[in-house]
Structures are given as C-alpha cells and as structure tokens.
Amino acid sequence: MKVAVIGAGMVGASAAFSMVMRGAASEVVLVDRNRALAEAQAQDILHGTPFAYPVRVTVGDYADIAGAGVVVLAAGVSQKPGETRLELLGRNAAVFAAIIPEVLRYAADAILLIATNPVDIMTEVATRLSGLPPSRVIGTGTMLDTARFRALLAEFLGISAKSVHAWVLGEHGDSEVLCWSSASIGAIPVMALARQHGRPLEDADRLAVDQGVRGAAYKIIAGKGATWFGIGAGIARLVQAVAADERAVLTVSALTPEIEGVRDVALSLPRVVGANGAGEALWPDLDESERLALKRSAETLKAASDGIRRP
C-alpha cells in the first residue's frame, strides 16, 4: 500500500522509517514545505531499506500522493513564547485548513491518520474540515500511552509486555484514564496475578505506574526536546493494521457521538482498525471512578475544542 506522510519533521520521518523497518507499506512519499528537509529524510530512510524491506521511499508534492491508501498528517507549528494552548490550537487548525483540501484533491479515498498534537482536538478538526466519516479520520490517541502502561506493568511483574492487556482511554494528555479494573495478563486480572507472583500492586506501586505513564512525555521532552520514536512506531502499527485489514483492537482517537453524556468529542477508546479505518468502539468494563474520570476527560477535551478559533 502507498502511504503519504505530510510533514517531514522528526515525527513524520520516524513514522516513515518505522514503516520501512516493519514492511508496513510498499511505497512512502514524504511531503513538506521544506523540500530540502523532505529530500534529506527520504534519502536517509531509503538507505536503510537493504537492511529491512524493499519499500520505495520518495519525496514529492501533493500531486504525488495520488493513490495513497493512508495519509499521515504530522505537520504543525510549535508553541511560541507566551502563546496560550488555545492560540496554538487555532494556528494548527489553520495549518490543517490549508493541508486537508490538497490531500482530498489528490487522495480522496485515503484514510487520514492524525499525529499532530494535541492529537484528539486535531482529529476533530480534521474530521470536520474533511467532511469524511469519523471512521476514516484516526488520531494516534492513547496508543502510545497504552503501550507505556503495558510496558510498565510487564516490567513490574517480569512478564512480556505482549502478554499484558490493559488500556488507557480518553485524552492523550493529563486527563487520560488508566483502566486498572479491567487490566489482565492472559485471562487473569493483573491484581490477582501480582499477588500470585508475590509482588502485590500496592497503592504506591500503582501510583508509580500511573505517574510513569502520564509523565513519560514530559521526561522525554525535558531530555531531548520532543518525542518521536515511540509515536513513529505507533503510526507504522496503525498503517499495518489498515493495509492488512487486520481488524486489530487499538486505542485510537476518533470523533465520538456521545460518551458519558458528552457529545461530539474526539478521544480514545479501543476500536477495531482495518481497511475501512477505525470501526466500532469496544467498551471495557470500568469501575465507577474510571467512568467519572473518563467523563472528566471528555469534558476537558470538549471545552478545549469549543474554545479554539476555527479556520
């Protein structure tokens, strides 16, 4: 499958590189208003193909994305000193207002994958600007947060992260909800398994995991300025699920008609992802505190979305 990546910065380039390493696409086209950057990234990634998969990696303009099955939107602007979050959101919405018509002009049948932050609100913006069904506009959402949750639980218990089933829902951000009540290893609830292993998850342990998940991005940003490898790998995983029509269950963001009384908000739930995009949402069993937290997360996103200046 041909994939276009709009925005050749570190996130876009890492996504393209991960697709090559994973063999998730047959062709990757990088598009950026800084043509020299896109050309350099494409060449650098192409030189890695002999060690991975024979993916065609090129640089182009919007016309060159024709035929793409997926278009990754990784373009956006950085926050200026003194600029509010809502002002930044307004500027990124304006960026999408310029990009999305060009994408639809040449790749009208593509599924849009949104990686630009704040990803939930930008997913809603992209859905409204494009007029596409919500299933065809997918935000990376809490994919990475879910991976972090599973990795930390696996580390604590000494078990492969691939055997951990646990979800992070809601916002990709401070109000996200770690679903402890439904977390499991195989068919065994994670709390019961921890007791079996002689390592019960005490309140302090759970707090450390929670803080590790919520604070991961802040720690990485403090050390190197931004995150890109993890989200790049997540984007490649999403592309693979679409290309292979896997119907894989992934925590991705999409415009949701109603959740816990909050209407028309984009946030993450476990969704079935395949050739037609993000299909039906699956609803984990939540305890009362998790349901209230998910409602607060939805309200937080809704308030931010309602406050931005529309392009």
Question: What does the model show?
Answer:
- The chain has about 300 residues and is α/β, with parallel strands linked by helices.
- The protein contains 9 helices and 14 strands.
- Strands 3-2-1-4-5-6 form a 6-stranded parallel beta sheet, sandwiched between helices. It has a 3-stranded antiparallel beta sheet with strand order 7-10-11. The protein has a 3-stranded antiparallel beta sheet with strand order 12-13-14.
- The longest helix has 22 residues, at about 85-105.
- The protein starts with a strand and ends with a helix.
Q: What's the layout of helices and strands?
A:
Layout: E1 2-6, H1 10-22, E2 27-31, H2 35-46, E3 56-59, E4 70-73, H3 85-106, E5 111-114, H4 119-130, E6 137-139, H5 143-157, E7 164-165, E8 168-169, E9 177-178, E10 184-185, E11 188-189, H6 190-196, H7 203-224, H8 229-243, E12 248-259, E13 262-274, E14 277-281, H9 288-307
Parallel strand pairs: 1-2, 1-4, 2-3, 4-5, 5-6
Antiparallel strand pairs: 7-10, 8-9, 10-11, 12-13, 13-14
Helix pairs in contact: 1-2, 1-8, 3-4, 5-7
